[in-house]
């Protein structure tokens, strides 16, 4: 028998066979598109650190979502920019808060679009932390009460899914119990289970005005050096009633995505965060990379690592490129 017996290149010899044996298939159905909504009318304020991303007023957001829905992107993740910030993040759970108004408007205009709301206080607090602060410390249990109020108010506005991103201990269980008690047992919870204290969040903090005014978030967000801890966090959230567990960021934590998927068997979301997006955009603007090829390779890698859902600011572009490739 001639050498070599196996020639793997035969399976790469043309596009047809490459498609037939392809192990990972990226789809528009994998995407959730994060969007920022603010007060006012006619507002489309560009986020300087995130080319192509804007803070929208509700009317302009609905225009944006016309394109999103046309691209068959299944849903959005809403972040609110409040009119006024205070120590307790009151607009996060106010019935007339910006997210509440946006949810109602979106569900009326696009009833088939999945609406997910971020459940956290950092965008709404004057100090920029994700919970109640006392004497320079973020208090866990008093924060849970406000997170529950936020989740309930978003569910009442019509949110399909709530996504607690605060990393307070026990918040998933408290939110699940409260939703069920109020008749919202069909509202899903996507828990930010492994949310790392990452340097990749900088552009988001510009978009949301959510940078902490003192200290950092290392007492509640996870140490980037830890992977086993992510598994413990994911299991705790599942035990408390999470429907989907998330790893955030994505690209530096592909190993964590894989382990969480393999060891829990639960649906896993991965957040391709603002810093990851902005680095690609900056390099593409310099002409150093092919943006389309890079984005599709990165998103395929996140999917290959085990993500069932990818939250990405690239969603619109990726959806267009996938359509062109069909």
From TrEMBL:
Tell me which cofactor or cofactors this protein depends on: Zn(2+)
- MF annotations from Gene Ontology: porphobilinogen synthase activity; zinc ion binding
Q: Which organism is it from?
A: Pelotomaculum isophthalicicum JI
**What does this protein do, in the record's words?**
Catalyzes an early step in the biosynthesis of tetrapyrroles. Binds two molecules of 5-aminolevulinate per subunit, each at a distinct site, and catalyzes their condensation to form porphobilinogen.
State the pathway, as annotated in the record: Porphyrin-containing compound metabolism; protoporphyrin-IX biosynthesis; coproporphyrinogen-III from 5-aminolevulinate: step 1/4
Binding of 5-aminolevulinate 2, residues: 274, 313
What quaternary arrangement does the UniProt entry report? Homooctamer.
Sequence positions that bind 5-aminolevulinate 1: 205, 217
What is the name of this protein? Delta-aminolevulinic acid dehydratase
PROSITE patterns to which the protein is assigned, alphabetical:
D_ALA_DEHYDRATASE
**Gene Ontology terms describing biological process:** heme biosynthetic process
């Amino acid at each position: 028998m001639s050498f070599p017996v196996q020639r793997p290149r035969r399976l790469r010899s043309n596009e047809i066979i490459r498609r037939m044996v392809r192990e990972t298939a990226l789809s528009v159905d994998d995407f959730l598109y994060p969007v920022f909504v603010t007060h006012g009318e006619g507002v489309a304020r560009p986020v300087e650190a995130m080319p192509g991303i804007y803070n929208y007023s509700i009317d302009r957001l609905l225009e944006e979502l016309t394109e999103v829905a046309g691209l068959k992107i299944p849903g959005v993740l809403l972040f609110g920019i409040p009119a006024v910030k205070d120590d307790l993040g009151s607009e996060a759970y106010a019935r007339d808060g910006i997210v509440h108004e946006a949810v109602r408007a979106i569900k009326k205009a696009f009833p088939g679009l999945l609406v997910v709301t971020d459940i956290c206080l950092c965008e709404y607090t004057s100090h920029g932390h994700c919970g109640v602060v006392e004497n320079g410390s973020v208090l866990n249990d008093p924060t849970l009460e406000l997170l529950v109020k936020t989740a309930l108010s978003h569910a009442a506005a019509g949110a399909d899914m709530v996504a607690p991103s605060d990393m307070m201990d026990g918040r998933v269980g408290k939110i699940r119990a409260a939703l069920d008690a109020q008749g919202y047992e069909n509202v899903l919870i996507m828990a930010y289970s492994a949310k790392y204290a990452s340097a990749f969040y900088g552009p988001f903090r510009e978009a949301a005005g959510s940078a902490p005014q003192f200290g950092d978030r290392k007492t509640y967000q996870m140490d980037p050096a830890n992977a086993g801890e992510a598994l413990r966090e994911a299991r705790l959230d599942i035990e408390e009633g999470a429907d989907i567990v998330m790893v955030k960021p994505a690209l530096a934590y592909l190993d964590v995505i894989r382990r969480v998927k393999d060891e829990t068997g639960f649906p896993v979301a991965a957040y391709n965060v603002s810093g990851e997006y902005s680095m690609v955009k900056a390099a593409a603007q310099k002409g150093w990379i092919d943006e389309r090829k890079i984005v599709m390779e990165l998103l395929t890698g996140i999917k290959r690592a085990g993500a069932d859902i990818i939250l990405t600011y690239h969603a619109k572009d990726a959806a267009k490129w996938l359509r062109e490739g069909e």
